């Protein structure tokens, strides 16, 4: 089979592009540790509020600059619906839903999780700028969906 010179160029270009693309994905996924914000931990969806750590939702200080936020998503809100952390702190979020599929999205950050009943999702973010961050639900969860929001207040200390 004879290939024209320009066909060979395009094949080399196409295969080269594919190799570069797969290399970038591989380095990003494995070397930098980027992965979807989900874990295989589960909780009984029928008894979320009786299961640790969701029996005490809220914000807990782990060390000087690290906090753990345990949050329950429900129709049509989050519990707690407001948390306050100092600027520069890292917050480790762990969430579950007690009823239907929700999401936990903080615009202009890398935090964007789909929250399903019975599963515990985890993600973390370091808040480098002070201000008020709005948390939204991007999964339609019913007639009051537009009211489902939460606030994260980042203070200058």
UniProtKB/TrEMBL annotation:
Residues 38-157 form the Cytochrome oxidase subunit II copper A binding domain. CDD domains: ba3_CcO_II_C. Keywords: Copper, Membrane, Metal-binding, Transmembrane, Transmembrane helix. It is found in: Cell envelope. Gene3D superfamilies: Cupredoxins - blue copper proteins, Rhodopsin 7-helix transmembrane proteins. InterPro entries: Ba3_CcO_II_C (IPR034214), CcO_II-like_C (IPR002429), Copper_CuA (IPR001505), Cupredoxin (IPR008972), NosZ/Cyto_c_oxidase_sub2 (IPR051403). It catalyses: 4 Fe(II)-[cytochrome c] + O2 + 8 H(+)(in) = 4 Fe(III)-[cytochrome c] + 2 H2O + 4 H(+)(out). Pfam families: COX2. The chain crosses the membrane at residues 9-31. Subunits I and II form the functional core of the enzyme complex. Electrons originating in cytochrome c are transferred via heme a and Cu(A) to the binuclear center formed by heme a3 and Cu(B). This is Cytochrome aa3 subunit 2.
């Amino acid at each position: 089979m004879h290939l024209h010179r320009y066909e060979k160029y395009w094949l080399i270009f196409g295969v080269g592009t594919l190799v570069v693309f797969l290399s970038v994905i591989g380095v990003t996924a494995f070397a930098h540790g980027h992965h979807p914000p989900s874990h295989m931990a589960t909780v009984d969806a029928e008894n979320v509020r009786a299961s640790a750590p969701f029996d005490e939702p809220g914000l807990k200080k782990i060390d000087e600059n690290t906090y753990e936020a345990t949050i329950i998503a429900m129709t049509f809100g989050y519990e707690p619906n407001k948390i306050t952390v100092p600027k520069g702190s890292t917050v480790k979020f762990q969430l579950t839903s007690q009823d239907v599929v929700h999401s936990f999205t903080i615009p202009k950050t890398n935090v964007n999780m789909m929250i399903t009943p019975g599963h515990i999702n985890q993600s973390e973010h370091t808040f480098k700028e002070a201000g008020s961050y709005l948390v939204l639900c991007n999964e339609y969860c019913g007639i009051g969906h537009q009211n489902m929001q939460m606030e994260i207040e980042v203070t200058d200390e």
